């Protein structure tokens, strides 16, 4: 069974709303940002794994650039709120991590793995109106997600 690397949600479509718990126990919805900020929504396989740690730290290191571009970064995996809290603290992550325990939001976006084993590593750039402007999927080039998102945000200015 083949799966699309682009997922279900495509460029030009309205990004589906969702509500998930953050690493500090609050809840966040995509609609909280509509009309205010662009959102870089990135799905990743698992906290504290080499590729995911590299990706999270790259987002951390560029976080001020994302803020200057008018965007918020939201990381999503099926790890627990507690695991996210430990991961965010350990690596001093300034952005929000969301716990998608049952994978419902991942399924909603179609952020499935190209390999069928690990959850997919897919980044969606969503503008202030909630329209998906870019989708980037690469399981292995974790840090390229940051470059792709910034290129899209800067092109939109």
UniProtKB/TrEMBL annotation:
Matching PROSITE patterns, A to Z?
THIOREDOXIN_2
Q: Which UniProt keywords apply?
A: Antioxidant, Disulfide bond, Oxidoreductase, Peroxidase, Redox-active center, Thylakoid, Transit peptide
Which superkingdom?
A: Bacteria
Compartments (UniProt record): Thylakoid
Q: Which molecular-function annotations from GO does this UniProt entry contain?
A: thioredoxin peroxidase activity
Q: Does the keyword Thylakoid apply?
A: yes
A single GO cellular-component term on record: cytoplasm
EC annotation from Swiss-Prot or TrEMBL: 1.11.1.24
Which stretches make up the Thioredoxin domain? 9-157
Please name the catalytic residues of this protein.
52 (cysteine sulfenic acid (-soh) intermediate)
Does the keyword Transferase feature in the UniProt annotation?
A: no
InterPro entries referenced in this protein's UniProt entry, alphabetically: AhpC/TSA, Peroxiredoxin_AhpC-typ, Peroxiredoxin_BCP/PrxQ, Thioredoxin-like_sf, Thioredoxin_domain
Biological processes per GO annotation: cell redox homeostasis; cellular response to oxidative stress
What are the boundaries of the region Disordered? 1-20
Reactions catalysed: a hydroperoxide + [thioredoxin]-dithiol = an alcohol + [thioredoxin]-disulfide + H2O
Q: Which family does it belong to?
A: Belongs to the peroxiredoxin family. BCP/PrxQ subfamily.
Subunit composition?
Answer: Monomer.
> What PANTHER family would the database entry show?
AHPC_TSA FAMILY PROTEIN (PTHR42801:SF4), THIOREDOXIN-DEPENDENT PEROXIDE REDUCTASE (PTHR42801)
The record's function comment reads:
Thiol-specific peroxidase that catalyzes the reduction of hydrogen peroxide and organic hydroperoxides to water and alcohols, respectively. Plays a role in cell protection against oxidative stress by detoxifying peroxides and as sensor of hydrogen peroxide-mediated signaling events.
Question: What name does UniProt use for this protein?
Answer: thioredoxin-dependent peroxiredoxin
Q: What broad taxonomic lineage does this protein's source fall under?
A: Bacteria, Bacillati, Chloroflexota, Ktedonobacteria, Ktedonobacterales
